[in-house]
Design a protein that fits this description.
Elements lengths: L1 H15 L18 H12 L2 H6 L2 H16 L4 E5 L1 H18 L6 E5 L19 H8 L7 E5 L6 H13 L2 E6 L5 H4 L3 E4 L14 H20 L3 E2 L2 E2 L7 H15 L3 H10 L4 H10 L3 H10 L4 H8 L1
Parallel strand pairs: 1-2, 1-3, 3-4, 4-5
Antiparallel strand pairs: 6-7
Length: 311
């Protein structure tokens, strides 16, 4: 089977150039170390990740600005990847509605193999070059959207295919990988290539590579939401109070940021229909709901600007 042999040799050659696949000689005695020494050794490796992420601050900032601009135009942020990389995107997307009060369709996570792949491996799904494009078509991807392809190796066919399709549509394309000169970076508008080096367990890219991906997606959504006015003085003010803990946090947030007492904060939240941001505007300016609500809307939901307009 010469064709199969040729393809195998090609893949082996590709893997030999990936930092994430490198075997570190001093890892040969891991199974002989005490548990405490194992913890210390792995923790030492993990501490290198934030520094690696910091080397790509310029690219990450450009990505945040691009995402924010498209959000303001009604666009969406769509993550996609395979395996761990796909799960990182799905996790970040699922956290945005409760954290920032966003519509579930504003940040979307796609994973090779579909939802079943969130919990179980789907064999060969990452090798399908057309699957991501098909999912993006179903979402009716447009030039107002941003797509973020996540791949530790930077060569995952599922991610490369999705990024290529997204560029054809005119969407902003961002590639997150753990190897320089990646195939995904080559087809993206912004390449965030964070070289985390050999993994603690060779080839297990759910470790340092996965951690770097999580740190980056945290910044992409959190910082774009800050720029959209979803926070005030470093506090979440667009959270959705869906349980007792979050309802108590809403009251506490109004109290902390406005200096109001518990009764005043609770009353303002009641008048504002549970909206922390609107309740804060009422308490901090003394404006009635009839005046505060349109002021907040006119300010594009930015509390600081709405306060300034009513004072």
């Amino acid at each position: 089977m010469p064709n199969d042999d040729a393809r195998l040799n090609e893949l082996l050659e590709e893997l030999s150039h990936l930092a994430t696949e490198t075997v570190t000689p001093d890892r040969g005695d891991l199974d002989l170390l005490s548990t405490t020494d194992l913890v210390r050794a792995m923790n030492a490796e993990d501490r290198t990740v934030p520094d690696a992420v910091a080397t790509r601050s310029t690219e990450i900032a450009a990505a945040v600005d691009g995402i924010t601009d498209r959000f303001r135009r009604g666009g969406r942020l769509i993550y996609f990847g395979a395996g761990t990389a796909g799960r990182v995107g799905v996790l970040d997307a699922s956290e945005c509605p409760p954290t920032f009060g966003t519509d579930p369709g504003m940040v979307v996570g796609l994973i090779a193999g579909g939802e079943v792949a969130i919990r179980s491996a789907v064999e060969d799904a990452e090798d399908d070059t057309e699957a991501a494009a098909a999912s993006l078509r179903e979402l009716e991807l447009s030039e107002r959207d941003t797509v973020v392809g996540i791949s530790a190796s930077g060569r995952t066919p599922y991610v490369v295919g999705g990024l290529e399709f997204a560029r054809e549509v005119g969407a902003l394309t961002i590639a997150i990988s753990s190897n320089e000169g990646s195939a995904t970076g080559a087809v993206a508008d912004i390449a965030i290539e964070i070289v985390t080096g050999p993994e603690f367990v060779s080839g297990s890219t759910r470790l340092k590579s996965g951690t770097s991906q999580k740190l980056v997606v945290n910044m992409l959504t959190t910082l774009s939401m800050i720029k959209l006015g979803k926070t005030y003085r470093g506090v979440m003010v667009d959270l959705i109070a869906t349980n007792e803990k979050l309802r108590a946090r809403s009251v506490r947030t109004v109290m902390q940021l406005s200096g109001a007492g518990v009764d005043e904060a609770a009353a303002a939240l009641g008048a504002a229909g549970g909206s922390v941001k609107l309740a804060l505007l009422i308490v901090m300016t003394g404006a009635p709901i009839e005046k505060a609500a349109p002021a907040l809307e006119s300010a594009g939901g930015v509390l600081r600007d709405a306060i300034a307009a009513l004072r």
